[in-house]
Amino acid sequence: MSVETVVVTDPAAVASPTEWALARSQVHAAGREAAAPVVELPLADTDGLTLAEPLTTLTDLPAFPCSSVDGWAVRGAPPWRVVGRALAGSVPVPLTEDGTTVEIATGAMVPVGADGVLRVEESTRTGDGRITGVLRPAPEWRAPGEEARAGEQLLPAGTPVDPGVVGLAASCGYDVLRVRRAPRAALLVFGDELLTTGRPGDGRVRDALGPAVPAWLRRYGCTVDPSDVIGPVADTLSAHVTALRAALDRADLVCTTGGTMHGPVDHLHPALTELGAEYVVNTVAVRPGFPMLLARVVGADGRVRFVAGLPGNPQSAIVALVSLVAPLLAGLQGRPMPVLPQATLAEPIRGRGNYTHLALVRVDPAQGTAHPVRHVGSAMLRGLAQADGFAVIPPGTQGEPGERVSVVPLPLLFGERL
């Protein structure tokens, strides 16, 4: 899919906002076009990355018939004479005579010629040391290919690698995986009014996004080095251009906070012009967070980098993250567009006219209901800190109790609650 972009030529021009769902699809497509390079890494180094090709089995799973219990592999009718042992990690001697058995451990290969496996707790010994008991009707071993056949696709390309995937790959016989590396992100904080330490006051406000945005980016699969978090950057065009150039030399994605409008100290648009950037999306018809943008810059090496302009108001900035940055990063990692879960509104949520409204909610996972939270102004973070995600109220509608709506989850360290 080709992504239509607009060259930044007139920084004073106010773009017509892109519909929210369309903006998400456009930035995801842009990310797919510039997807991170494929690398081959040892299994232990792939957690958190993305499969670059389907995971197929290198052998049947299991590769041989193996006992699912501790007990006795038997042939013929009881009582059975003990002729050996079958331990995990070895090939047992075949059973060639009726009335014979070998002691077998869980996971051990079932000997050729065995008719069944008798559980140890359901067996008894006769006076002459033979084994007797009644076999269960169902087999007590796993047959070759019971889980998967050699060459069968288990997971598609684009699957995030987690410990479960690592373990599955190892069980299939993989030593390395072909994956897409994690995008590297940087953050530039704009605004002379910002404090990085201490309490706000005397016209100065504390920077809340410098500490928070890198943590969100890491949860979306980025690497963010502390040295790549810069700011506050001076409110001059030259400082913005210099900071952006330096960050783009190191990062695949540069997020900026503030400066996305066209005021006297909003220098992001002119800086993008200086860099020869192209807009993928310039403003989105969403509230809060309307003045967000995503632009791409082609480096001297021919590789595409991205600049995500986040609004300066903290909640609006997070709306921009979930709206544009999340689908972009999914594309860069070769992952599909995130599918939004749904929940039932427990209370009404007002619409925002022709704009999509992203409303902070807590989700009751047991009931599947979404409950609006308080303190949700664009400059507020109190509501965000208590929320699970944003309920999506489409343009021209109101959110009514009992209505099913999509929810954009906030990424959590150990997976999403929704």
TrEMBL record:
Pathway: Cofactor biosynthesis; molybdopterin biosynthesis. Residues 186-331 form the MoaB/Mog domain. Its EC number is 2.10.1.1. Signal peptide: none annotated. Keywords: Magnesium, Metal-binding, Molybdenum, Molybdenum cofactor biosynthesis, Transferase. Its cofactor is Mg(2+). It comes from the Bacteria. InterPro entries: MoaB/Mog-like_dom_sf, MoaB/Mog_dom, MoeA-like, MoeA_C_domain_IV, MoeA_C_domain_IV_sf, MoeA_linker/N, MoeA_linker/N_sf. SUPFAM superfamilies: MoeA C-terminal domain-like, MoeA N-terminal region -like, Molybdenum cofactor biosynthesis proteins. It is an enzyme of class 2 (transferase). It catalyses: adenylyl-molybdopterin + molybdate = Mo-molybdopterin + AMP + H(+). Catalyzes the insertion of molybdate into adenylated molybdopterin with the concomitant release of AMP. Belongs to the MoeA family. This is Molybdopterin molybdenumtransferase.
